[in-house]
Design a protein that fits this description.
Oligomer: heterodimer
Order of helices and strands of chain A: HHEHHEEEEHHEEEEEEEHEEEEEEHEEE
Strand content of chain A: 25-35%
Strand content of chain B: under 5%
Distance between the termini of chain B: 26 Å
Radius of gyration of chain B: 17 Å
Number of strands of chain A: 21
Order of helices and strands of chain B: HHHHHHHHH
Number of helices of chain B: 9
């Protein structure tokens, strides 16, 4: 044996029989990939307060030292928050309380890192037949915020072209839910299954970024069973196009599914009728005013141009439709013939307008709030929250 | 050596093979950093930073001037000294380069490696073999080995010391 080397050096030179410190190698490779990706795309990291980093370090301490440290911490630095750096801030959601409002569940949800505000409380209307508990409602809300955060990161930080808006958003601005579950990971592709049970093959390129927990990782971090979403350059040709990023998601695939997402909708005070609660999109159009030209028609999005009311259809007869709003008011719409004529003219498939349907109505501000004549109606949409009541 | 140079060239060409260099040097480098800063977790952080720095400066590495391991250990040593300086701690070592040499993997032929493995397998009692494999080949810390084998950390240290003495005798 060579006398020039120490025993340590000789032992460290043995290859093939080493088990290696895989955790260290993976952690280091992930850090290198992250550095390289940040450099390539000129990305920035966001600071997210969390306690995991500290916890992981503590768990590596000897038990006696750990106990001593815990006691010291409890008495001196309780409440200290430790930070981690991520590509986007990961949202959190918690249900504060749930109440029954007009046959529907209304939940007050506290969300962090959802949209532009650090923390806020929002209302959600829940399909009472969905069977979702408060934990599910929080997770659906969190999934919604997570997809929004990823969408914003893709468009702002990756700075991709115009295609990403179509890729990530419904026309109503709701994030598209295309979470898949990984079935197999291969050298150049991964096989996935979407929530509808359809199989997909996502091709991987050398440049594909892998992201887990909002940090760059290596492909080895992906395992069958992981829930992912992905970003491609050309969504019309996902097999041929370049896959820019494969991103693991935090929750079970069902929470990103459109069915679950439609069970839990955003709820806000109705525009111009703030005493009532209006559920957010998606909606299905059943009537659109055609008496005014597009240029003259008041934009429903312009402040003060139109009012909004929403309620469950209780009575429908030859002339009118009566809806009951969340505050219990009954609003009558002179809309039966208007809806029929609109649907005949547009020849578009439209949802049935029957007792129990929830209608979202936009009308001109000059109309009476409890009786809206047909010439004041701007738009009517049907919302499927829990089906007929 | 030739193979290592090829890996570096591949990495510079964009081939994702840097992991092979990490696999080869990480255990020795962590031990070296632990010798310098005295804490395993800090040592792992510094070793990781050294690998990242080496990766980002790989185009500046000149294989004609120094072995990759020498260059990498130098980066890690500087980072460790920065770390100690920032904490107003000092280390008194006559020759840091010589200290790095202790944990820098040797360049030995496969035949010699096989012979060494046989010697390790023949260590008695078997706990000596286990502690050598855990520390040098699986990259476990003293504490990890103590936890895994349910023995005091000082027992790990003494077993390791005695196992190396026995190994030295076998090799001579």
């Amino acid at each position: 044996m060579n006398d020039n080397y120490t025993v340590d050096q000789l032992l460290l030179a043995v290859e093939g029989r080493r088990g290696n410190n895989r955790a260290f190698i993976t952690r280091t490779m992930n850090a290198i990939r992250q550095e390289a990706t940040i450099k390539t795309y000129n990305l920035s990291l966001k600071e997210q307060a969390q306690s995991n980093t500290l916890l992981q370090r503590l768990l590596r301490l000897p038990k006696v030292a750990l106990m001593a440290l815990i006691i010291a911490m409890l008495t001196t630095v309780a409440g200290t928050v430790y930070a981690a750096y991520r590509l986007w801030l990961q949202p959190e959601a918690r249900v504060e309380h749930i109440q029954l409002v007009q046959d529907k569940l209304l939940a007050l949800v506290s969300v962090r890192q959802c949209g532009s505000q650090d923390a806020q409380q929002t209302s959600r209307i829940i399909d009472p037949t969905s069977g979702l508990g408060s934990d599910d409602i929080a997770k659906v809300s969190q999934a919604y915020c997570e997809m929004n955060a990823i969408s914003q990161w893709v468009s702002k930080d990756l700075r991709l072209g115009g295609w990403q808006a179509e890729r990530f958003e419904h026309t109503e601005g709701r994030p598209v839910v295309f979470a898949h579950t990984i079935e197999a990971v291969h050298e150049g592709q991964i096989e996935t299954r979407d929530s509808a049970g359809r199989q997909h093959v996502i091709s991987l390129q050398k440049s594909t970024i892998f992201i887990d927990n909002a940090t760059v990782v290596t492909k080895e971090a992906l395992q069958p069973g992981d829930v992912i979403t992905y970003v491609v350059k050309d969504h019309r040709k996902p097999q041929e196009g370049s896959t820019l990023a494969v991103i693991t998601l935090d929750l079970a695939v069902k929470y990103y599914d459109s069915t679950y997402q439609q069970y839990v909708r955003s709820a806000k005070p109705c525009v111009g009728n703030e005493q009532d609660i209006c559920a957010g999109p998606p909606w299905s159009n059943v009537y659109q005013s055609s008496e005014q030209s597009d240029r003259e028609r008041p934009s429903k999005y312009r402040p003060g141009a139109t009012k909004q009311v929403q309620g469950i259809l209780r009575i429908i007869d030859q002339t009118g439709i009566s809806i009951e709003t969340s505050s219990g008011r009954v609003v009558t719409l002179e809309a039966v013939s208007a809806i029929r004529d609109y649907q005949n003219e547009s020849k578009l498939p439209a949802p049935a307008v029957i007792v129990g349907t929830t209608l979202d109505v936009r009308y001109q501000t000059s109309a009476d709030d409890l009786f809206i004549p047909s010439d004041k109606l701007v738009e009517i949409n049907a919302i499927n929250i829990g089906g007929p009541q | 050596m030739q193979q290592e140079h090829k890996i570096i060239e591949d990495v510079l060409q964009g081939v994702d093979s840097y992991e092979q260099l990490i696999a080869k040097y990480h255990i020795g480098l962590i031990i070296h950093c632990e010798h310098l800063v005295g804490d395993r977790d800090d040592a792992e952080d510094i070793a990781q930073e050294a690998f990242i720095k080496a990766y980002s400066q790989l185009d500046k590495y000149n294989h004609k001037k120094a072995r990759f391991s020498t260059w990498l250990y130098k980066i890690a040593t500087n980072l460790a000294l920065d770390f100690l300086r920032a904490r107003k701690r000092h280390i008194v070592v006559d020759d840091i380069e010589a200290m790095a040499g202790v944990t820098m993997p040797a360049f030995i032929e496969e035949e010699e490696q096989r012979e060494l493995v046989k010697h390790v397998e023949s260590l008695q009692p078997p706990e000596f073999r286990e502690v050598i494999e855990s520390y040098y080949w699986r990259g476990q810390s003293y504490q990890d080995i103590a936890d895994t084998q349910h023995i005091p950390i000082n027992t790990v240290r003494s077993r390791l010391r005695r196992a190396k003495l026995q190994l030295k005798e076998k090799m001579s």
